[in-house]
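Case study 2.
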Amino acid sequence: MKSSFQNLNKAFDNKIRLGIMSVLSVNSRSSFNQLKEVLEVTDGNLASHLKALESAGYIAVNKSFINRKPNTNYEITPSGAAAFESHLQALEEILKQL
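Prediction:
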């Protein structure tokens, strides 16, 4: 079982980051406010986790204006999708071994 744990991605250890990746893996994109509402987190908490995932190259940020209001959308990158899928497979392997 030790090797299965080694296949887990540290970037997804936190439940908020896991939640962000889960939302983005089933939706083509999501706004900051949508993520905040679904995950029930504060602005600052969400922003710090989004920044970490962006720095890792797992999500992309798209900023625009809608009726002169700033709008920020996030989407999963191909490398983020691959890393998340690999993480989920490692979790499945761990569960199968229990």
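Strands lie at 30-31, 59-66, 69-76.
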